[in-house]
Amino acid sequence: MEITRRSALILAAGVGLATVPAGSAQAAYYNDYETIARIPNAHGCTAAQGFAAGGTYLYSVKIRSDDARAIIYRTNRTSGATEIMTNGTDGVAYNSWLGHANDMTLATIDGEYYMFIVTMTTEGAQLVKLKYVSKTYYKVGTFAIHLGGTAKAVSGITRTAKTSTRIDFLFKSVLNVYRGSIGLRDDSGTIDITEAFTLDTAGAKVDGEVVPDIGDFTNQGFFYDENVKDLFHPLTKGNRSIVLHYPNVTDETSGAITPDPERSFRVTSSTYPRLFEIESLGISDGTLYFSTNRSKSASDADWDGVHSFKGFSRS
Length: 315
What we know:
Blueprint: E1 17-18, E2 28-30, E3 33-38, E4 47-53, E5 57-63, E6 70-76, E7 82-84, E8 86-87, E9 103-109, E10 112-118, E11 127-133, E12 136-147, E13 150-151, E14 156-162, E15 166-173, E16 176-183, E17 188-192, E18 194-199, E19 205-206, E20 209-210, E21 218-219, E22 223-225, E23 230-237, E24 240-246, E25 255-257, E26 263-268, E27 275-284, E28 287-295, E29 305-309
Parallel strand pairs: 2-26, 8-12, 12-17, 18-25
Antiparallel strand pairs: 1-2, 3-29, 4-5, 5-6, 6-7, 9-10, 10-11, 11-12, 12-13, 14-15, 15-16, 16-18, 19-20, 21-23, 22-23, 23-24, 24-26, 27-28, 28-29
């Protein structure tokens, strides 16, 4: 098992931080990343899914192929030290109630720490609330997510705001984004989501050039930076991953929104030619972190990890 420190740099194809041509002095292109830790298979869980960045730790979920089992890793984002968290509800290292666990977001409530994870199913709960204390987590809540009175299997979740009485989220299904809220201390109920906007990807530019086959890419999770109102959306195809940046997303945003051509992210990996799949993202202390499914070949596929984009920094 390989555990890499943050100083161990793995380069994607291309070199470092570049600027987009055509006179865009402020445009930025990020295609260089560093691996903080490898997230190995364990307990039959082989596929990386949900991810979130906390103040000290990065949290990532891996699931079994039948969605019947999940494990949660935490990685110290400075040292790279990684461990499987304990399911305190059942007293074991894995759980059976996160479904596909496709995306997750974090919140602090009354000084205690919580994860919200979408199951990506219409059966049972669509959202699971976990409380975590150090390296142990507990299932403390479940929610139904409904659109027009029918259960909706959303694939993405990101927090947009927290007040003294509620938490606001954006949820995503493919390219459709919805708004929904829960009471700050709620542990159950139905979230009736409403249509917010759609993410337009057609004609999106990466490094100043339109991505010609973007319609063939798979949509992954997403992340909203509530401090500056930026939304980041990863898409993947084989050994290519791109992240589109949508600026100035607010409560009033509606309709189809287009990505910023002045900031783009891409990794095309020759080291992992079978698969380099960014699952989801998060910003902590100004750094943009992400998780991956990585595979060299069908027989050499256990290379999932957590990483950061090199050169990107936000104060």
